[in-house]
Amino acid sequence: MRHYKITAKGKVQGVGFRNFTKAYADSKGYTGSVQNLANGYVEIFVSLEDLGDFLEALQKGNGRMNASSFEVEHLPSLKLSSFEVLR
C-alpha cells in the first residue's frame, strides 16, 4: 500500500468534488480524507495501490468539476481506517 498527499487545483470547490472523491475511494476500499482548503484547492490524503487509476477518476469527475492539475507528494504512512470528508 502506498500513501499520498494530493492537492487538486482547478474547479474543485462547490461542484461535488469531495463527495465524488469519497464515493470513489469507498468503492475501491481506499482509506484517507478529503477537504477544501482556503485557497480554493482540495487536499486529499489517500492510501492505495494504483495512483494512476485514482487520478484518472478524479480527472473525469462528475461532469461539473474540472481538476486542472494535481500536486502529488509521497508519504511514509497514513493511519486512517476509512475515507472521510473533512469540513
TrEMBL record:
Q: What is its EC number?
A: 3.6.1.7
Cite a single GO MF annotation: acylphosphatase activity
Pinpoint the Acylphosphatase-like domain residues: 3-87
* Residue numbers annotated as active site: 18, 36
Keyword Hydrolase part of the UniProt annotation: yes
The cross-references to PROSITE patterns, in alphabetical order and at most eight, read: ACYLPHOSPHATASE_3
Question: Which reaction(s) does the protein catalyse, per the Swiss-Prot or TrEMBL entry?
Answer: an acyl phosphate + H2O = a carboxylate + phosphate + H(+)
Transmembrane segments annotated in the record for this chain:
none
Q: Which UniProt keywords apply?
A: Hydrolase
Which InterPro entries does the entry link to? Acylphosphatase (IPR020456), Acylphosphatase-like_dom (IPR001792), Acylphosphatase-like_dom_sf (IPR036046)
Q: Say yes or no: keyword Magnesium present.
A: no
Q: Tell me which Pfam families the record gives.
A: Acylphosphatase (PF00708)
For this protein, the record's SUPFAM superfamilies field holds: Acylphosphatase/BLUF domain-like
According to its UniProt record, which protein family does this protein belong to?
Answer: Belongs to the acylphosphatase family.
Q: Which PANTHER family does the record associate with it? A: ACYLPHOSPHATASE
Q: What is this protein called?
A: acylphosphatase
The species is Helicobacter trogontum
- Lineage of producing organism: Bacteria, Pseudomonadati, Campylobacterota, Epsilonproteobacteria, Campylobacterales
